[in-house]
Amino acid sequence: MPETLSPIAAAYAILLLIGMPALAALDARRGANLAEAAKHRRLLYVSVGASLVILALLTLGVAAWQDVPASALGWTVDDPGAAALRGLAVAVLGLALVWLITAVARLAGLRETAAVTLLMPRTAAEKRGFLMLSGIAAACEEYAYRGFGLWAITAWTGNAWLAAAVVSVSFGLGHGYQRLAGVLRATTLGMVLAATVIWTGSLFPAIVGHFWINAALGLGGWQYLHAEFDPVDIDDNPGNDEERR
Questions:
Q1: Domain span holding position 172
Q2: What is the DSSP track for 172-223?
Q3: Over its length of 245 residues, how does the chain's per-residue pLDDT go in tens digits?
Q4: Into how many domains does the chain fold?
Q5: How many beta carbons lie within 10 A of that of residue 151, not counting itself?
Q6: Residue 238, Cα to own-chain centre: how many angstroms?
Q7: Within a domain: residue 149?
Q8: Which residue, 59, 92, 125, 239, shows the most beta carbons closer than 10 Å to its own?
């Protein structure tokens, strides 16, 4: 990683790591109509996927403009088979941590929101759309956060682990709509993914792990993780999650 960081690259990193959580907080404060969105999950998946692709393209544009080598951002794979296995190991570890944090949060009395379960796929078509979104999210978010963000903060501070912490907190705050438990889950997963990139020098295991974590939760895992929410009741009465807790 380079020892210096251009002002433009630094400005974009700040915009990414502060601006994205700020936008998420603003949307949450405005009170996004999740009940309405849940009626059109496939369209929602397309919208979110398009937003993530735009984010990745903006990141790519800044990296190309500032002559940042692709390898510096983790676009390198020495052994695809080994990288895929590492990715699966990351997914297993990530899912275990998700369950542990959720269980501890529940014991601590931290209230969850039904928002994340409301947006999980129900039909076969929705599940296909969710799998596509999971792949897009894994590639685009890893590139933006654990690729450019991690590279930029490491170049700025000279400390990869400090950079990993900063990027992971930003990633976690971007999930603020899931409340404190969700922020803790996302921050922890972000740290695991960042550590994977630091140790391997590649984004590929993190992308594979990120995808399988999303896929496992979306294709049924959420029903076990959030068993306190009745899927049928959520669909029929999406606005009553406060009363059910």
A1: 7-69+79-244
A2: HHTTGGGHHHHHHHHHHHHHHHHHHHHHHS-SHHHHHHHHHHHHHIIIIIHH
A3: 445 799 999 999 999 999 988 887 776 665 556 666 667 888 989 999 999 999 999 999 999 999 999 999 999 998 999 999 999 999 999 999 999 999 999 899 888 777 778 789 999 999 999 999 999 999 999 999 999 999 999 999 999 999 999 999 999 998 877 788 889 999 999 999 999 999 999 999 999 999 999 999 999 998 888 766 555 444 544 444 443 33
A4: 1
A5: 25
A6: 24
A7: yes
A8: 59
Least Cα distance to 119 among 42, 195, 14, 209 occurs for: 42
Task: Return the exposure string of 206-226: e unless at least 16 CB atoms fall within 10 Å of the residue's CB, then b.
Answer: bbbbbbbbbbbbbeebbeebb
> Is residue 2 domain-resident?
no
Secondary-structure breakdown of the chain: helix, strand, coil percentages, each rounded to the nearest 5: 80, 0, 20
| Residue 227 located in a structural domain | yes
Rounded CA-CA distance 223/101 in Å is 16
Residue of 142, 143, 144, 136 lying closest to 218 (CA atoms): 136
Work out whether the CA dihedral 162, 206, 54, 179 comes out positive or negative.
Answer: negative
Considering the domain boundaries, does residue 74 fall inside one?
no
- The single residue listed with the structure tokens 């997914």 is 91
Look up residue 239 and give its DSSP letter: G
Count the alpha carbons within 13 Å of 93 in the hemisphere toward its beta carbon: 19
Those residues whose C-beta lies under 8 Å from the C-beta of residue 128, and which sit 6 or more positions away, are: none
Gyration radius (Cα) of the chain, Å: 18
pTM here? Answer: 0.89
